[in-house]
Amino acid sequence: MPRQPAAVNAGAPETMHDDTIAAIRLLVLALEMHPEDLATLQVYGDMAEHLADLIDDYIDTDD
């Protein structure tokens, strides 16, 4: 049985629009190219951990 994304368990829709997923992929690529920017985003919490959770929940990494 597939695991529900954490966001779904919190009441969010099960899927996101393809445009949103594409934007998340681009953000991940940008942060891979410029990891120093994670320090700037740290004011919002542990962005690396949040993004990892988001990717795990919504983005198929088997591409």
Percentage beta strand: under 5%
The run of helices and strands is HHHH
Going by helix content, strand content and strand pairing, the class is mainly alpha
How large is the radius of gyration? 13 Å
- What does the average pLDDT come to? 77
Q: Which word captures the global form?
A: globular
The total beta strand count reads 0
Estimated helix fraction: 55-70%
Report the uncertain regions: none
Helical stretch count? 4
Major beta-sheet overview: none
Compute the separation of the termini in Å: 21 Å
Description:
With about 60 residues, this protein is mainly α. The protein has a domain at about 35-63. About 60% of the residues lie in helices and about 0% in strands. The model has no long low-confidence stretch (mean pLDDT about 75).
Fold topology:
Layout: H1 6-9, H2 18-33, H3 37-41, H4 47-58
Give a summary of the structure in a few sentences:
Helix content is 59%, strand content 0%. The protein contains 4 helices and no strands. The two termini are 21 Å apart.
